[in-house]
Amino acid sequence: MARPALIVHGGAGPVPEAERGLRQAAVERARDAGWSAISRGALAAAVAAVRHMEDEPLLNAGIGACLNSDGEVELDAGVMEGANLRAGGAACLRDVRHPIDLAVAVMEDGRHVLLAAAGASRFAREHGVQMADPSIFITDRKRQELMQGADTVGAVARDGEGRLAVAVSTGGVKGKLPGRIGDSPIPGAGLYVDDRFGGVCGTGLGEAFIRLGLARLMVVELQHGMDAASVAQGAIDHLTKTLKAPGGAIVIPREGSPCAAFNTPAMPWAMAE
Ligand code: GLY
Which end of the chain is more exposed for a tag (fewer CB within 10 A), N or C? Predict the structure, then answer.
């Protein structure tokens, strides 16, 4: 038997002072939603936490995500299981109500790891994933236009069987070019998990996470025996020194407590174990 654990973050970024408490409370609600699902397994817990955050208008995922350079929302999400290295991602979504649900459907289908844009929407419809009018993702255009940074939401869970899972969802970077895909749906970049070593996910400038292969690197460090706190902090130091990029990371090792690190003014996070 393993000790269950869950860690959830609501994005690393230059969060306005007035919003910090509200974002922290949103992340704690997501932690509670995820923790209440832990008896159904690590995947259920991580997905429940992220799905909750896709409904929180102050977080950059789902409802309330940041806008691209055309003033529209394009969403990415990814999920991975550490037992068998199954992974699924969906990107450039405009009309999928819960991008994390589509990432799970892609993973469970198993033919591909990442679907994008119109093909992803078609797959969603064919697999009974809830669709939405793109306008529902714009809850406060003025606020969404002013959002800064490249925050993301994510969760890592470990269940009582020692299985690990990671889920991530994002609106990406404010003002991004239409069609841009970040790190969040890409295993090895924005998320990675292997039950033998641990699970991680990132938040911050996706281009930097992709260029560094940062999530995979973190799990390799766990594999080599580095402790989770050093892995999280080391990844953020690498991000800062090598590419001067903003970001954060959360980690759950195979055994032991969750950890978080970030180089931005704030990153709301919460955990349970
Ligand atoms: N980390 C979120 C993104 O860059 O898309």
Answer: N
Residue 8: predicted pLDDT: 98
**Does ligand 1 have an atom closer than 6 angstroms to the CB of 81?**
no
pLDDT of residue 105: 98
* Strand, helix or coil for residue 14: coil
State if residue 170 touches ligand 1 by the CB under 6 angstroms criterion.
yes
Q: Give the C-alpha separation, 140 to 156, whole Å.
A: 29
Q: Which two tokens stand for residue 227?
A: 């402790």
Tally of domains in the chain: 1
**Domain residues for 131?**
5-272
Q: Yes or no: say if 6 and 31 are a contact pair by the CB < 8 Å rule.
A: yes
CATH number, domain containing residue 20: 3.60.20.30
pLDDT surpassing 90 at residue 147: no
| Residue-level pLDDT at 13 | 83
Q: Give the integer Cα–Cα distance in Å for 217 and 117.
A: 28
For the Cβ of 169 lying below 6 angstroms from any atom of ligand 1, the answer is no
189 lines ligand 1 (CB under 6 A): no
Ligand 1 center from residue 160 Cα (angstroms): 31
Choose which residue among 60, 73, 170 to substitute to test ligand 1 binding: the one with the highest number of ligand atoms within 8 A of its C-beta: 170
Q: Choose among 184, 153, 180, 154: nearest CA to 76.
A: 184
pTM beyond cutoff 0.90: yes
Integer Cα distance of 71 and 193 in angstroms: 34
User: pLDDT band for position 16 (50/70/90)?
Assistant: confident
Ligand 1 atom nearest the C-alpha of 190 is 1
